[in-house]
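[job 4471] stage=fold_predict status=RUNNING
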Amino acid sequence: MTQKVMLSDLFKIGSSKRVLKAQWQTSGVPFYRGREITKLSQNGFVDNDLFISEELYAEYATKHGVPTAGDIVITAIGTIGNSYIVREEDRFYFKDASVLWLKRTSDVESKYINLWLKSSLMREQLDEGNGATVDTLTIKKLQGLTLDIPPVPEQKRIVALLDTVFADLEQTRAKTEQNLKNAAELFDSYLNDAFENNFSGVEHDSLNDICELIVDCEHKTAPKQETGYPSIRTPNIGKGVLILEGVNRVSEETYITWTRRAIPQEDDLILAREAPAGNIGVIPKNVKVCLGQRTVLIRPKKDKFLSKYLAFLILSQKVQKQLLSHSTGATVQHINMKDIRAFKIYNLPW
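[job 4471] inference complete, writing structure tokens
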């Protein structure tokens, strides 16, 4: 039998005391912002680089309290709703407003509440009456949430059941990732074998000589929206394909502005200039796209190269090695437009 309760009946809901940026340190007690709580929520651990002094932590622990085992912390700004249950071995403080603190005040199974916080039931209630998705979580909003809660033994049974399901899903995910890795390695092997024996005794043309068009994107990433024209950024460029799932979209006005130099067409290529530099995809049939930041539109001359053939040639191991040898940047590889246009490409028959 369940009963409907307010979340504020189970937890004291608040945040931390203010820690000034001048009080941040490179060692001491870990100090978490929303991004660190998100990583804890996803991975159970975080490589942290912000800290506060032992003295400040001790002062706040005495005067205001600090997170203890069974409490829940949850992200409140930006990507909201990423929650983490504080463990016995945890010892940290966190940034006010960016993270909210649910301090357990009742005999409740925190794991059960944490699962509810991640469910659509919580999200739907949070968005209800707002007319739009909530992008900021406040103490008042959390205090106003209600949930149906069963007796503690039933809470524990549900948690144990879901833990088993999640463990099975994690095992499936790991196997899927390994299969994808194996498939990618097989693709690279076939790709390199296909071109390996064709590199000797051939003429070299610059990419500029064999293309009608080579245009880079001169715009920054537009604000994200759910509808409109796909804006291809470097993460959306795979090996020979464009990854359109979850792609950022732009308005028609932005599309017109961004494509005034060249309207991308079917079979055009989009090359990533960085992150990851060298990836190249082919624009599929009946798909209108525009170029996002750090991308290059390439249109081969039809009497010189088939688009997909050129894409796979550029992705081959030897060509990638040569192309990336022109890259600059200490931490992020970057290929400039001058080197892209002048790049010598193998003029192979097709």
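[job 4471] summary: The longest strand covers residues 99-104.
[job 4471] exit 0
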